[in-house]
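Narrative of activities, Objective 1.

The group set out to show that a structural description can be obtained from nothing but a protein's sequence at a throughput compatible with the screening campaign. Below is one input-output pair from the validation batch, recorded exactly as produced.
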Amino acid sequence: INAAINIERKGILELQAAGLVVSAHGGQRKSVTQTVAV
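Output recorded for this entry:
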């Protein structure tokens, strides 16, 4: 169970990091990233 939680958290962090990168490039896909994050 703990492993699954760690994987989920890692995935969320990766999504957040991707969102930051996209925002740095103009945020063209920011809304898409937010939708996936939700």
